[in-house]
Amino acid sequence: MSFAIRYSLTLAEEETSGGPAGLLGTVAEAAGPLSALAGLTTLPLNVSNDVLGGSLVLDADITVTMGEGAVASTFEAVLVNLPAETVRTLRAALARRPLSATVRLGYFDDRSVGRHPVMAGRVVKLASWVAEDGLSRVRLTGQDAGGYALRMTSASVHRAEAANALDFAHKVVTAAGLTLAKGSALTTELTDHTVRNPTALDALRELAHTAGAPVVIRDRCVLIGPAVGTDDPAPVAFDPDVNLVAYGETQGEETLVVAPGEERPPTRTSMNVTVLGHPDLRVGQVVTLRRIQDAPAGPLRVNRLVHRFGVRTGYVCEVQLVAAAAGEFVEAVDGARGFTDRLDAGAERALLARPSVDVGEVSSYRAAGHQVSLRYGQSPPPSMSLPSVTGPVGDDVLLDKPVAAPFAFGPCGLMTPVYPGMRALLAHNRNLVNDAAVVGWLWPRTPGARAPAPEPGDYWLALPTGTGSDGQPTGPGVNDLTDAKGGRIIQARGLHILVGTPKLPQVGTRPTPPDDDSVTIEHHTGTTIEIDPEGAVTVRTKGSGIKLTNGTVSLSLDGASVQVT
Questions:
Q1: Which of 414, 421, 532 shows the shortest CA–CA distance to 474?
Q2: 57-113 residue pLDDT tens
Q3: 153-227 placed in CATH 3.55.50.30
Q4: Do 405 and 335 touch, CB atoms closer than 8 A?
Q5: Domain 5-149 - what CATH class?
Q6: Cβ distance 401 to 373 under 8 Å?
Q7: pTM of the full predicted structure?
Q8: What is the Cα–Cα distance from 75 to 101, expressed in whole angstroms?
Q9: How far is the C-alpha of 513 from the C-alpha of 205, rounded, in Å?
Q10: Residues in a beta bridge with 381
């Protein structure tokens, strides 16, 4: 491979139509490296170290960083002695609309290498200064156009029926104007699932996480699952006699706390190699190593890649290789990406270990204080869409935790029944494990679970009168239902209604319900209407008159007299 290295950087104003997806069809790439120079204050502008291929011939240091995962690859270009009027043009253009950048790297005497851009991107930052050597410099920082489009596109997809996670991923990718690679797959089936994220990158990351699948974003294409590492060889083998400059090996052990029930990730071995630069190297490609003793068993996949170019320092690729089968998810072992991944993973595991909202199952109830003891905690697989109602509850224990109520005020409030086996929704104040409260109840959707069958508009209290050997409600039920039309029905084993302030008990005193199938309506004056369990009706007063009438005939009972009128 030649040591006569070349670069070109083409800058242009992007088309504004088409939203984020329109960022992919850039004027810069269409212009190509041979765009003519109409002046130092016009775009597109091409900068190069090739006197035959660029508008401006300048020294430059270029770094293109690519990584596996749902992340946007980045680039940085430092240009030396870019004319001041050109800098002003770039600043003005960047203020008006998106500014695209197309980076090409290669060799003067081998034009077959580097026919395609190393990166077509979007400039997100421009900085200029004069260095100690007296030369002006401009730093252009940006992101890969595909990753940028995904970052700028929000994701909102819903499917009521069962659907494969890849269906969601396809909608997210196409909405951003990218292509989903052939062979991509996600094994997870999602039912009644909603994807809603501020960025499509976050949505892809979550969808891939449901199946533990890798993601690679490169050259306007998204590879997911088995598409990563399948039939995707690197353009060159790595050989110390040809292009391998340096290499080393790293082993990484996960030392962060894992969530309850979660297995600790295995130790991962990676190789960090430096090779002579090749512009067609990409993340996700499978590399062949030659004449390297004790190299990890393959296949070896490019997990992280840095194209580093300098007119005075040369062109190399710094590559992190991981031993991984096609479609196998791996985390970065070292480097800045590995560090940030571990920070993110540590924060996520800490949240999983001490969540603010959790699910439990009642094991016992203590009436004094309206408190419950529960089993709690869930460790569902990422593929489970609704673990709160479909997943099992863990075996960790919480003792004597309060139950929230719609109204709780001193000795007054609304008390609801609690039975062992009820699935509780828990809120942990300040994420403290022991400061938990039951804030509601959930009907499980596990096999064999049952729930009421309301109609739209129902306001319905349904209570059991007994439980079976499995602890579940059985036998007759009591109900108080008001439907959407305003009709109300009350069904109870027995009923006692009392009216009148003088007969009301002190606040917090529990009334005694009837112990048989009777109905009693009682007034504080002592007048009662009773229906006994056999259906006999008795009306009693304490000296008060009784009058029955149909509007035409009246029957009056007053003291010892009976009168019909």
A1: 421
A2: 999 999 999 999 999 999 999 999 999 999 999 999 999 888 999 999 999 887 767
A3: yes
A4: no
A5: few secondary structures
A6: yes
A7: 0.76
A8: 9
A9: 57
A10: none
